[in-house]
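Internal QA ticket QA-208
Title: Verify multi-chain structure generation after dependency bump
Assignee: T.L.

Test input:
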Amino acid sequence: MNAWQLVRVHRGAAAVLALLVLTASLLVAGLPRGFEAAYDDALNVLTGDAVAPQVDVAVRLRPNIEEDEFHDRRAFTDLDQTLRKALPPTLARAVVPGGTSHQSAITWGTPVSGILGRDTPPQRFVDLAWVSNLDEKIRYVEGREPGPPRRLAAVPGNPELKDLPLFEIGLVEEAADIMKMPIGTTVLLGNSYTIAAQVVGLFEAADQSDRFWEHNAELKRVTVRPLPQADEPDLMAVGVIPDEGLRELNARRELYYSWVFGVDGSKINARNAPAMIQAIDDYRQIVEHQAGDHATGIAQIPAAMFELTTGLDQLLDRFLAQLRTAQTLMFLILGGLVVVALGVIALSIQLMAERMRAGLGLARARGGSIGQIARTGTGTVAMIVLPAALLGYAASYLVPGPITPIVHVSPAVIAVATILFAAARLAFAHRKPLLDSRDDLVVPKSSPRRIALELLVIVLALAGAYALRSRGLTTDVAELGSDPFLLLVPAALTLAAALITLRCYPYPLRLIVRLAGRRRGAVPFLGLTLAARSRGATSLPVLILLPALAVSVFGALVSGGIAETQRTAAWQTVGAQARIEREAEIPADVIEKVRALPGVTSVLPVAKGTAQVKTGGQTSTVLAMDLAAYRELVAGSPLVVPDPPVGDGIPALVSKSFAPYPSFEIGWHTRMKLTNVGYIEKLPGLAFETGNLIVMPYEGPKLAGLRDYTNILLVGGDVDQALLKRTVGLADATVETVDAARERIASAPLAQTIIASFTIVTVALAAYALAAVIIALVIGAADRARALSFLRTLGLSQGQARLLTVLEVAPLIVLASLAGLALGLALPAALGPGLDLSAYAGIAVTEFPLTLTTPILLAAGLTAVSILGAFGHATTGRRVATALRVGESA
Amino acid sequence: MTTLSDLEAQAVRNRPAFGEHAHILCDNLVRIYKTEGVEVVALQGLDLLIEKGELIAIVGASGSGKSTLLNVLSGLDVPTAGLARVAGMDLLSMTSRDRLRYRRSVVGFIWQQTGRNLLPYLTGLENVLLPMRLAGNKRDARRRADTLLELLGVADCAGRRPGELSGGQQQRIAIAVALANEPEVILADEPTGELDSDTSEEVFGALRSANRELGVTAVIVTHDPLVSEQVDRTVGIRDGRTSSETLRRTSVDGDVIAEEYAVLDRVGRLQLPRDFMNALDMERRVRLELERDHIGVWPSTPGEENND
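Actual output:
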């Protein structure tokens, strides 16, 4: 008798075991890969959305003395090479040579002290910039490229200025108009150490969307900076100079040099993010702590105060915090799946052991030692399990995603656990050589030790749930890391519920048996009695069904909670079903066009702006809108609208900082006096939550002597974003809809993954539960066949036999399902406060709406499928003659 | 001064111990199956002596303890109390390692169900080789298996699986399996229980030839009169005790004479056959009288009853 022979003989049970191990290996190796891919996608989205200066790493230097200055391109390139060489390996791998990398020297805050040949308007600034790769980034539309600096011997009208450096500069095209500096204009820059600059060319950006401009936005536009106390805003432009210009650019100006290293976001992933943060930290140490240390300082410039600027480390820190939450949740889901999978595998080992029992038992009785028996049996199981696990592991490579150690480890763990369980199970079953134990004796009562252990598990689970609620599972993980005890709480709760169910299920059953006993039909009574007597293998499905259902229901509720919160978040972002917003006024004809769109039920005009509040010199967001109409517009949504302000003059609702003033003046298009009639905290979608807010009636501006003014339209009704955009037809208008916002939140990689994995896991768990019921039935098939064959000789029909089988398993399935359902419904309430799901929903998920439909459907479906499985097994019953033979010889 | 223990030692020393030379010895054997709250006493002080090379049958009603006795003798079950010794090995004090060696080399056994004796997916020959392989006796294993199959008349079944064999052939191969490791004792639990009389004859013949030609002690539990009436000694078991023995001898004129005896244990206990008791309405107590060459047993008279 060798292992291969046993595999061949028991190929049915072997196939079941192989299939289960294969799927389990595939799931535990494949799902983490999927998760990791989603984490990476999420990180890519995050780095993609961030502006280049946030993601890129830049070394900056503000030269203070002559020794710090760089006067030619070569000096920049050399230091660039040195700095690159000093990059820690992790960071160096993410830094790409081209992309947004460049070096620059730019002055700032250089005032125009005069314009040759005409009056000098105040509040004009022109800075000088040299950028290493600017030629590729701009195109001259007028004039020529600037040449090397010259000397200006004298300045007419300014006799004290002699022999000045005269830079040839190129300006962005719009500067010619806005700042009135056409080609040929020569300006004097700086009030001390004055220099001159002559505009020789006007340029435009070669590619507006180039991320390079995110670093150097001030180069491609004129910056307009409004001043509170002045009528005219500050106007600032940057003149670009050629390499030779560096010769004359010195520390007398406010000047800074930059070496920007473009970082390729796709080179950063969830796994190397912590190392990346560390690398940035290390690099910061290298770059910033070299002053006064010329022996080791990489730049070899004494006293130069280098500075590292990047937002990447903070960005990654934030991401890692989110990631830990996600990982915790994935761990919970995956943990539930592994528990159930191992349970079903244990059950199929039980089946295999049961099938091999006769053969191994005979060998044991004929002089096989326990070692020989266990070796043969375990060898058989290993022969089934190892290829299956390997196949599952190989199949997991079809799932796209990066490979982490868990991908390799988990199939191995499954295989080893299965084989060890089989070895233990066989050694235990055959420790005594007697072929049959006497099964006519009563079942021994549980030992006090076992009861104490079960009580301990229950108490620990409850204590864990309490600790989880009070301390949180995912909160603070960023700082503290996950708490393994708390991570085990959901599993412990499930186990506790299963233990309680196993202990208590005879009680309701007894009642039902008593009721069934009073009825005339014998089948229900017999079936339920068999159910009450069933033990051993039949209790395992409870331990599988219950967690399966609990995890599924928990998943459904969490998905529901997330979906509901996504909806709330979408409404809070948009503020209505659709919002059209523009800085300038929205023309009346556009409003009419929107109103006329099919599907639009109402359109609410709103005026929004920023007002100067005369009291305390603060600014505030001001909204002029009809709150009563707005309330109607958003009825049925999660948004809450306060009562409209009513009162004398111009009544207004105000936020906290203005609450003490009964009335105050604001400057918004004109001066208007507002009467404080109530408090408003926030209006999501219309105003930032943190800022000051004033809400007045839509007629407010009119009451102040102006006319109605609209720059926001809130639209009610079902309307498509694209159609709305087309209809509005204003390029500078923002059009947002709830559907689009929700889509955007829901399509975030993490949110998508969590929902998808809940679905996959629910399906897998349902399949496992079904498999568990069928395997349990097959294990008990011989005993059942004996009982049935006896009953069939007494006149039991085939149909009644089927009913008997179903009745035998149904009570346990139904009770386990009910317990699983109850636990699944209770889990979000128990764990909810400890789970931070804001990463998936945009805002914190605080409520898990108790929609019973999905969970009950899940429970009913699972129960029905399991009972149908039992029915199917019973239907493939044998004929009387076969049954009788089985009864005799089994 | 002579102490009580000295006297006891002296008494024991002078007389041979009970069943000292027996091949199989059971003395006051007790086996109790115990689970919480319920005890089933399967053997209640059973005594049995079997000489080396003997072929005996054990008979008894269902539940009388026959199978338990056989399980104990085969080393599959451990008695609760008493003494059980087979081929000089004490079955109560054996370690599990001894027990394994015992099952490998001292006993062989045959069950009633033909399907239970053989692995259905192994051929006859492979089934015979299995115990030898388990025991690590690889040398000459094949030759011995062939010899055994030949001896039992099933050499032609060597390459066939049990499913392709008749019940009788299966049981004869089962006997070959039991004999594979050259045991000193073979135990058979209703070996002909599932067979018709002709086939039973064949199987019993095989057992007898094993007993005679290999010198193996054979203990057969049986209901089959065909078997029980052909052995030299039949032991009856009732309520977990040996109650009677039937000895057969061949008279000078060739007739088989069977004489049934009641078993008297060492402390003088005796089971009266139930029929005898019923016939004389014996209950609770009897009157004994010692005669010159026998003991008379009388039912207690009504007057005596009243004096109770």
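Spot checks passed. The CA atoms of residues 789 and 882 of chain A lie 8 Å apart.
Status: verified.
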